[in-house]
Design brief:
The complex is a heterodimer of chains A (about 450) and B (about 210). In chain A, about 65% of the residues lie in helices and about 10% in strands. With about 450 residues, chain A is an alpha+beta fold. Chain A is elongated and about 130 Å long. About 25% of the residues of chain A have low confidence. Chain B is built from ten helices and no strands. Chain B starts with 5 loop residues before the first helix and ends in a 9-residue tail after the last helix. Classes of the chains: A alpha+beta (about 450), B mainly alpha (about 210). At the A-B interface, helix 1, helix 3, helix 4 and helix 5 of A face helix 2, helix 3, helix 4, helix 6 and helix 7 of B.
C-alpha cells in the first residue's frame, strides 16, 4: 500500500510507539527505508517524547492528602440510600422502557388535569353534591369573606358565587320576583374567589390585611356616597294595534332619555299579534317612564324588582385598590430584582394581579352601567289574542329559559377554554423541569460513563 | 489494606469505608496531581483540581460499576476537570499563567542550573500547546498510558488520539528544536531562547488548529 509522504508523517508518532496495526506499520517501515526526511523526523519525535518523559513526576505538596481526607470526611457517605434508591428505581424503569413510563405518566397527569378542568368548567362541582367534591366548605366560606358582607336577602349560595355570575343572577332574580312560577335554579358554587383570597394571602403582608379590611364591613375606610341599585321591571300591555304601540314604546323610551336594547315582533296572517321590547332608561327617570308606559294600553302584568349592589360595588372598589397597591409594590420589587428566576416570578405575580384588577374593573363598569340604567321588559299583546294563541307569558318563559341556558353554556365553555389555556400554561414549568432533569441525568451519565 | 486491589477497595468504599477510599487516594494522588500540574501549569491550581477530582470521584462512587478500571475512570474525571478548568480561564490569565511556572522547583539541589532551566522550558512548551494535544502528550509520554487508555480518558477514539499526539510532538519539536542532544548548555541570547521566550509570553504555535 503506497502511502503519501504527508500521510506517513501523521503516522510517525504511533509508529515509534508501536501502536499501528500491522499493515500500516509495514507501510511506514517501507517508506522510512527510502525517505531520509521521515527517518530524521521519527527520531526527532522520539526525542521530543523523551524530553517530556524526562520531566519526571513532581511530588504532591505536603498536607494535600490530609486536607483532602478532611474534605472527604465531611461528604455524605456514598452509600447514603439516596443514590442507591435512585439507581434501583431507574433500573426498574429501564426494564419496562424509561420513555414509555414517562409518556404514560405525562398522559395520566394530562387526563387528570383535563378531567378536573372540564368537570369544574361544566359545573359538576356546582350542585348540592358537587360543592363538597370540588371545594371544601371552608374554601367557600373564605370566598365569602373575601367578597365582603352580602345583603342577607341574597342568601349564602349567592355569597359564594363569583361576581360574573352574581350579576346575571341578580337580574334574573329581579325578573322573577313577580312570577314565583319559576324559582331560581341552584347556581354553581365556585371556588375562584376562595382561591383568589388564598393567593392574596400568599403574596405578602398586604394580602391578608386587605382581606380583613374588605371582610369587616364595620371598618370600611370608604364612604358610601350613593346606593347602587339595579332595577328591573316587567310590563305586559294589552293593545289594539301592536305595531302602533310598538312604535310608541320606542318613541317613549327616546323621550325619557333611554334606548331600546332589544325588540322583536311576532306576526300572523292577521298582522302583528305580539311584540317584546327591552328598554333601558336612566334609573332616576324609571318611575316616570313606567307611568307613561301604563297609559299606552291595558296593563295586564307588572312587576318591579330592585337589587342593591352597593355592598358589592364598594367591596370591589376596596379590593381593586388593594390589588393596585399590590401591583405597585410588585413593580417596585421588579425594579430591584436581579436574577432572571425572580424576575419571572414577580412578573407572573404581576400578571395575575393585573388580571384580577381588570376583572374587577370590568365588573365595576358593569355594575355602574346597570345601576345607572334600569331595564324594562315590555310585552305587547293584541287584544283578543291572549287566549288560544301561544300566549306571550309561556313564550316569554321559554325564551328566557333558552337565553339563560345559552348564556350559562357559553360562560362555561369560555371557562373551560380558560382552564385549558391555564392548564397548558401550567405545563410549561413542568416541561422545563422535566427537560432540566433529563439534561442533568444525561450530563451525569456522560461524565460518569467510565462507570 | 494497602495491599488490596483497586476493585476491592472501591467495593469497600462504596459500602461507606472512608479508609479504603483513603488508600485509593494515596495510591493515585501522585499521578492525578501531576496530570493537573502539567495541564494547568500551576502548582496551586493543580492541588485544587486534584482535590476536586477525588471529591468528584467520591461523590460519584455509587454510580461506578466497574465497567472500566478505577484508574481509567479517575483519569477520565481528572481529564474532564482539567479541560473544563482550562476552558473557563480567561485568555489574560492563561498568558500570565506561564511565567511563574517556568521556574520549575522540582529538581533537587544537586541538579545543575542549566538542567533545571531546560526542564522549565519543556514544561513551558508543553503548557503552550492546545489543551487537547497537551492532554494526549502528558498521558502518553509522562504517564505512560496506552493509546486505548488515553482514548477512554479523553473520551475520543484512538484515531483522534494518534493524530493529536503526533501533532503535539511535532509542535514540541519545533518549540524546542531538539536536534541538539539533551543536557547541552543552551547558547544565551540565541534564536532558540527567543523562541522559548515567545512561548513564555503565551503566543500560540503555528501548528495549532
Amino acid at each position: 500500500m503506497a502511502y503519501k509522504h504527508r500521510k506517513i508523517i501523521n503516522l510517525l508518532s504511533a509508529y515509534v510507539d508501536g501502536a499501528l496495526p500491522p499493515r500500516q506499520r509495514e507501510a511506514v517501515k517501507r517508506h522510512l527505508a527510502e525517505c531520509s526526511e521521515c527517518r530524521g523526523l521519527s527520531g526527532e519525535l522520539q526525542a521530543a517524547a523523551g524530553q517530556v518523559a524526562a520531566l519526571g513526576e513532581v511530588e504532591v505538596p505536603g498536607g494535600f492528602h490530609e486536607a483532602l481526607m478532611a474534605r472527604l470526611a465531611a461528604e455524605p457517605s456514598p452509600t447514603s440510600g439516596r443514590w442507591v434508591g435512585m439507581r434501583s428505581f431507574f433500573g426498574w424503569l429501564g426494564n419496562i422502557g424509561k420513555w414509555r413510563v414517562v409518556g404514560y405518566g405525562l398522559a395520566g397527569v394530562m387526563v387528570l388535569f383535563l378531567t378536573f378542568g372540564i368537570l369544574e368548567a361544566l359545573g359538576v362541582g356546582a350542585g348540592p353534591y358537587g360543592s363538597g367534591l370540588m371545594g371544601s366548605p371552608s374554601a367557600a366560606q373564605k370566598g365569602d369573606m373575601a367578597i365582603g358582607a352580602e345583603p342577607a336577602m341574597e342568601g349564602p349560595v349567592r355569597g359564594a358565587m363569583p361576581p360574573e355570575f352574581r350579576g346575571e343572577y341578580a337580574e334574573r332574580d329581579g325578573g322573577n320576583q313577580g312570577a314565583p312560577a319559576a324559582p331560581p335554579s341552584p347556581m354553581p358554587i365556585r371556588k375562584e374567589e376562595a382561591i383568589a383570597g388564598d393567593k392574596m394571602g400568599m403574596i405578602g403582608p398586604g394580602g391578608p390585611g386587605g382581606g380583613g379590611m374588605t371582610g369587616g364591613s364595620g371598618s370600611f375606610p370608604y364612604q358610601v356616597t350613593e346606593r347602587r341599585l339595579i332595577t328591573n321591571a316587567n310590563q305586559t300591555l294589552s293593545v289594539e294595534d301592536v305595531e302602533r304601540s310598538y312604535d310608541q314604546v320606542i318613541q317613549l323610551a327616546g323621550g325619557w332619555g333611554g334606548f331600546v336594547q332589544n325588540a322583536s315582533v311576532q306576526s300572523t296572517e292577521k298582522g302583528p299579534t305580539w311584540a317584546n321590547i327591552v328598554v333601558r332608561v336612566p334609573s332616576e327617570r324609571f318611575a316616570g317612564f313606567l307611568g307613561e308606559l301604563g297609559r299606552l294600553g291595558e296593563s295586564r302584568d307588572r312587576s318591579i324588582s330592585t337589587s342593591d349592589v352597593t355592598e358589592e360595588y364598594v367591596d370591589l372598589q376596596a379590593r381593586r385598590t388593594n390589588y393596585e397597591r399590590q401591583e405597585k409594590r410588585l413593580q417596585e420589587l421588579l425594579a430591584q430584582t436581579k436574577s432572571i428566576d425572580e424576575v419571572l416570578r414577580v412578573e407572573y405575580e404581576l400578571a395575575r394581579v393585573r388580571e384580577q384588577i381588570e376583572m374587577m374593573v370590568g365588573r365595576l363598569r358593569y355594575l355602574e352601567s346597570f345601576a345607572a340604567m334600569a331595564t324594562v321588559n315590555v310585552s305587547l299583546v293584541r287584544k283578543g289574542e291572549e287566549q288560544g294563541q301561544p300566549g306571550p307569558g309561556p313564550f316569554n318563559e321559554v325564551w328566557k329559559r333558552t337565553m339563560d341556558v345559552f348564556i350559562r353554556t357559553t360562560s362555561r365553555v369560555a371557562l373551560a377554554t380558560v382552564y385549558l389555556v391555564g392548564f397548558i400554561g401550567g405545563l410549561i414549568p413542568m416541561i422545563l423541569i422535566l427537560g432540566l432533569a433529563w439534561w442533568g441525568v444525561k450530563t451525569v451519565r456522560r461524565r460518569g460513563s467510565g462507570a | 489494606m494497602s495491599g488490596l486491589s483497586d476493585t476491592v477497595l472501591v467495593a469497600a468504599a462504596q459500602q461507606g469505608d472512608l479508609e479504603a477510599f483513603g488508600v485509593l487516594v494515596k495510591r493515585h494522588e501522585k499521578w492525578v496531581y501531576n496530570l493537573a500540574y502539567r495541564m494547568l501549569g500551576h502548582r496551586e491550581d493543580a492541588s485544587d483540581l486534584a482535590q476536586e477530582a477525588f471529591l468528584k470521584a467520591y461523590r460519584a462512587l455509587s454510580r461506578f460499576r466497574g465497567a472500566s478500571s478505577f484508574k481509567t475512570w479517575l483519569y477520565r474525571i481528572t481529564s474532564n476537570l482539567c479541560l473544563d478548568a482550562l476552558r473557563r480561564r480567561t485568555p489574560q490569565r492563561q498568558a500570565g499563567e506561564l511565567k511563574p511556572t517556568v521556574a520549575d522547583p522540582s529538581p533537587g539541589p544537586h541538579e545543575r542550573a542549566e538542567e533545571r532551566e531546560r526542564l522549565a522550558k519543556v514544561h513551558a512548551a508543553i503548557v503552550s500547546l492546545p489543551d487537547h494535544q497537551r492532554l494526549c502528550l502528558i498521558l502518553r509520554d509522562l504517564q505512560g498510558l496506552s493509546y486505548e487508555e488515553i482514548a477512554s480518558a479523553a473520551a475520543v477514539n484512538v484515531g483522534t488520539v494518534k493524530s493529536r499526539l503526533n501533532r503535539a510532538r511535532l509542535a514540541l519539536r519545533d518549540l524546542l528544536e531538539d536536534k541538539e542532544p539533551p543536557g547541552v548548555e543552551l547558547p544565551v541570547g540565541g534564536p532558540r531562547l527567543s523562541r522559548i521566550g515567545r512561548v513564555g509570553s503565551g503566543l500560540q504555535t503555528p501548528q495549532d488548529h
